[in-house]
Amino acid sequence: MAIELVKERYNNAINIVEIGSPGVSMIKVGGETALPFLFKEGGMPYAPVTALEILDGEPEDWPDTLRKPFGDAIKDPVRWAKAAVEKFGTKILCVRLQSVHPDYGNRSSEESVSVLKAIAREVKVPLIVIGCGDDDKDNDLLPKASQALKGKNCLFGIAVQENYKTLTATCLADGHSIISESPIDVNIAKQVNILISDMSFDPKRIVMHTTMTALGYGMEYVYSIMERARLAAFMGDKMLSMPFILFVGQETWKVKEAKESGARQGVNWEIATSVSMLQAGADILVVRHPDSAKAVTDYIKDMMKEANK
Amino acid sequence: MIVIGELINGMYKDVARAVANREADIIQHLALEQVKDGASMLDVNMGPYSKDPVRDMRWLVETIQAVIEVPLSLDSTKADVIEEGLKIARKRAVINSTSADPERMDIIFGLAKRYNAQVIGLTMDKSGVPNSKASRLELAQTIVAKAIECGINTEDLYLDPLLLPLNVAQPQAAEVLESIHEFRLLCNPAPQVVFGLSNLTQGIKSRSLINRTFLTMAVANGLTAVILDPLDKKLMDALITAELLLNKNIYCDSFLDAYRKK
Fold it and tell me: Is residue A113 one of the residues assigned to a domain?
């Protein structure tokens, strides 16, 4: 007797978020109508994407494994950006303005923004721009960065429950999308999205970062939070219907075993974490090593072949 | 939860007057306000004073649909009045209602089939409203059987256990609560269960408090649709909270706001 597959059908889709400028280079993410790669239940109109991450200055604490592929270019953010795009083919670039952080150089916002502007001039891919992670510094830095890239439709981050107003207002004024972040907590994820949209910000321009950990550090819990948010979205919860972004590189390269166990282990760690996150519903994966970016992009291509069958 | 706004009803004097004088803005304002405050469907009832209910039904449906496209619950005891609404309804309508009388069910289910409408079935017959869970269940079963015979999908059937005023028939409130749960088990797919909440508190004080307390109890027992006044904010808040407690929506600090952004 033939076995009939049980298929779930949902009535709400994940929002489609566009990043980048029309006519120059634009990426669309989201639009899913079923859990990842379950093409018999629904669609994934836009394949998940990988973004290479660079900093606005030479990284102080990155292992040799990560520095090596970029050679000397890693000392100059603009050359580093060009290598990421031209040599390694990233379709979307993540620039973390880390040098403004008191512990990582404590540069002025103006210095960092001038680097960002130079990068934006040189590369033609859509940009994800992340602050340094210090609230006070970011509230000065991010409005300036946002204004410098006005109209380029970048994805800016990061807005959290305790600090979202400045970034939301500036993204609204300059026409950027925004990343909302929550500490692996679906209730707070929803709350941050509401707080942002209460400022008249279009919920369809929010990308969610539910926070994550790398393989071996409780990734299963991240999966369960993402799955819960996704299922609620499919059932009609508009305040959880945002695509997911995951900073895989940031988490992976914190892991001692990934950093210090020779060339391949860190890359494999980043790939394994990314692939798991894809199964949890990731739409944008921000990675640091070009080899992982390539492997994950190939994996996505393979998985998406099923979509057309 | 399917929330059916009850305010466009000729029992209310301002509505009756607006219908008689063709004051479209009053009706349209009521329609828009109810939907804004959470109604997913609007009840349309001419009330007892209408001199030409067929024409009034047409005017009401056209007037509402001129400003908002929302499913309508066409509320009348007269089949020709309901049919007039069905002819022009743009969204899938609900017929409000049939009783468990065979002749009435033949007519109403026939209309539902012809116009692809849903139906509210009241668990009452010629002998009146039942006074026990058992007799409600028996009538509900009669309605379900007839609906299936007429080719109506059971999920398109709304069973109404009929609420009675608390000061007239106090024991009936508990009987209704138990009936809701039993109705859901009658067939697969389960029928919807609905009631007109305001009936519970006709002519008594503390209406709002009693209505919202009872509603949360009914939601916990499996109620899937309700006819109420969506402009009663405390009532809507209680409904949203009840559904939250049943894990129908994900909690967040602004859960009321979140629900209303849906």
Answer: yes
pLDDT at B256: 94
Q: A2 in a domain, yes or no? A: no
Per-residue pLDDT, A260: 80
In a domain, A276, yes or no: yes
A173 interfacial to chain B (CB closer than 8 Å): no
Below-50 pLDDT ranges, chain A:
none
Residues of chain B with C-beta less than 8 angstroms from the C-beta of A198: 254, 257
B250·A238 Cβ contact <8 A = no
Q: Do B250 and A240 touch (CB under 8 A)?
A: yes
Picking from A226, A279, A215, A218, the residue whose alpha carbon sits closest to that of residue A248 is A215
Q: How far is B58 from chain A (nearest CA, A)?
A: 32
- What is the tally of structural domains in chain A? 1
B241 to chain A, closest Cα gap in Å:
15
Q: Nearest CA to CA, how far is A34 from chain B (Å)?
A: 19
CB distance A187–B252 less than 8 Å? Answer: yes
Average pLDDT, chain B: 96
> A57-75 pLDDT, tens per residue?
999 889 999 999 999 999 9
- DSSP 8-state symbol, B93: P
Which amino acid is present at B85?
A: G
pTM of the model: 0.87
Residue-number span of the structural domain to which A183 is assigned: 17-308
Going from N- to C-terminal start, the domains of chain B cover: 2-260
Residues 6+ apart with CB under 8 A from B31: B5, B8, B42, B64, B67, B68, B70
Size of interface A-B (CB pairs under 8 A): 38
ipTM over 0.90: no
Q: Strand B2-5 vs strand B225-228: parallel, antiparallel, or unpaired?
A: parallel
The two tokens of residue B110 are 């026939």
CATH superfamily entry for domain B2-260: Dihydropteroate synthase-like (3.20.20.20)
In a domain, A83, yes or no: yes
- Chain B residues whose CB is inside 8 A of the A197 CB are 261
For the stretch B177-204, pLDDT in tens is: 999 999 999 999 999 999 999 999 998 9
The CATH number that applies at residue A39 is: 3.20.20.20
How big is the CA angle at B229 (ends B224 and B230), to the nearest 5 degrees?
Answer: 75
Return the residue matching tokens 């349209």: B28
Chain A positions touching B40 (Cβ under 8 A) are none
